[in-house]
Protein backbone atom coordinates (compact mmCIF):
# COMPACT_ATOMS: atom_id res chain seq x y z
CA UNK A 1 0.00 0.00 0.00
CA UNK A 2 2.86 2.37 0.77
CA UNK A 3 4.38 1.84 -2.67
CA UNK A 4 1.04 2.74 -4.23
CA UNK A 5 0.99 5.85 -2.04
CA UNK A 6 4.44 6.87 -3.30
CA UNK A 7 3.35 6.43 -6.90
CA UNK A 8 0.21 8.48 -6.25
CA UNK A 9 2.32 11.28 -4.75
CA UNK A 10 4.55 11.33 -7.83
CA UNK A 11 1.47 11.35 -10.04
CA UNK A 12 -0.02 14.27 -8.10
CA UNK A 13 3.21 16.26 -8.41
CA UNK A 14 3.43 15.59 -12.15
CA UNK A 15 -0.22 16.38 -12.89
CA UNK A 16 -0.69 19.53 -10.85
CA UNK A 17 2.77 20.99 -11.55
CA UNK A 18 2.75 22.48 -8.08
CA UNK A 19 5.16 25.27 -7.29
CA UNK A 20 7.42 25.58 -4.26
CA UNK A 21 5.97 24.56 -0.91
CA UNK A 22 3.18 22.08 -1.75
CA UNK A 23 5.42 20.23 -4.20
CA UNK A 24 8.16 19.84 -1.59
CA UNK A 25 5.63 18.71 1.00
CA UNK A 26 4.22 16.05 -1.32
CA UNK A 27 7.70 14.86 -2.25
CA UNK A 28 8.69 14.65 1.43
CA UNK A 29 5.52 12.71 2.24
CA UNK A 30 6.23 10.37 -0.69
CA UNK A 31 9.76 9.82 0.61
CA UNK A 32 8.36 9.02 4.06
CA UNK A 33 5.98 6.49 2.53
CA UNK A 34 8.85 4.94 0.57
CA UNK A 35 10.98 4.66 3.72
CA UNK A 36 8.08 3.02 5.55
CA UNK A 37 7.51 0.58 2.70
CA UNK A 38 11.20 -0.38 2.59
CA UNK A 39 11.21 -1.08 6.34
CA UNK A 40 7.97 -3.06 6.38
CA UNK A 41 8.88 -4.90 3.17
CA UNK A 42 12.23 -5.90 4.66
CA UNK A 43 10.62 -7.18 7.84
CA UNK A 44 8.00 -9.08 5.84
CA UNK A 45 10.63 -10.52 3.53
CA UNK A 46 12.73 -11.70 6.46
CA UNK A 47 9.78 -13.20 8.33
CA UNK A 48 8.33 -15.10 5.36
CA UNK A 49 10.92 -17.94 5.37
CA UNK A 50 10.76 -18.18 9.16
CA UNK A 51 6.99 -18.52 9.12
CA UNK A 52 7.17 -21.08 6.31
CA UNK A 53 9.62 -23.23 8.26
CA UNK A 54 7.36 -23.21 11.35
CA UNK A 55 4.15 -24.14 9.55
CA UNK A 56 2.94 -27.73 9.42
CA UNK A 57 1.54 -27.24 5.91
CA UNK A 58 3.49 -25.04 3.56
CA UNK A 59 1.71 -22.23 1.75
CA UNK A 60 1.21 -22.59 -2.01
CA UNK A 61 4.17 -21.57 -4.18
CA UNK A 62 2.14 -18.77 -5.77
CA UNK A 63 1.53 -17.23 -2.36
CA UNK A 64 5.21 -17.48 -1.47
CA UNK A 65 6.19 -15.80 -4.74
CA UNK A 66 3.61 -13.05 -4.20
CA UNK A 67 4.95 -12.40 -0.68
CA UNK A 68 8.48 -12.16 -2.06
CA UNK A 69 7.38 -9.80 -4.84
CA UNK A 70 5.58 -7.56 -2.35
CA UNK A 71 8.65 -7.51 -0.10
CA UNK A 72 10.98 -6.65 -3.00
CA UNK A 73 8.76 -4.00 -4.65
CA UNK A 74 9.86 -1.11 -2.36
CA UNK A 75 13.54 -1.97 -2.90
CA UNK A 76 13.05 -2.00 -6.67
CA UNK A 77 11.30 1.37 -6.50
CA UNK A 78 14.08 2.73 -4.29
CA UNK A 79 16.71 1.50 -6.78
CA UNK A 80 14.83 3.22 -9.63
CA UNK A 81 14.81 6.47 -7.67
CA UNK A 82 18.54 6.29 -7.00
CA UNK A 83 19.26 5.40 -10.63
CA UNK A 84 17.07 8.28 -11.87
CA UNK A 85 18.77 10.98 -9.78
Overview of the molecule:
The chain is mainly α and 85 residues long. The protein has one domain (25-84). The protein is built from three helices and no strands. It is elongated, with a radius of gyration of 16 Å. It starts with a helix and ends with a helix. The model has no long low-confidence stretch (mean pLDDT 83). The chain crosses the membrane at residues 30-51, 63-83. Keywords: Membrane, Transmembrane, Transmembrane helix.
Mean pLDDT score, rounded? 83
Can you count the beta strands?
0
Contiguous runs where pLDDT drops below 50 for at least 5 residues: none
- Provide the succession of SSEs: HHH
- The class by helix and strand makeup works out as mainly alpha
Total domains: 1
Helix content: over 70%
- Rounded to the nearest angstrom, the distance between the terminal CA atoms is 24 Å
Radius of gyration: 16 Å
Basic shape: elongated
**Mind summarizing the main beta sheet?**
none
Strand content: under 5%
Q: Count of helical segments?
A: 3
Keywords: Membrane, Transmembrane, Transmembrane helix
Which secondary structure elements does this structure contain, and how are they paired or packed?
Blueprint (H helix, E strand, L loop, with lengths): L1 H15 L4 H34 L6 H24 L1
Search tags:
single chain; elongated; 3 helices; 85 residues; mainly alpha
Q: In brief, what are we looking at here?
A:
Keywords: Membrane, Transmembrane, Transmembrane helix. With 85 residues, the chain is mostly helical.
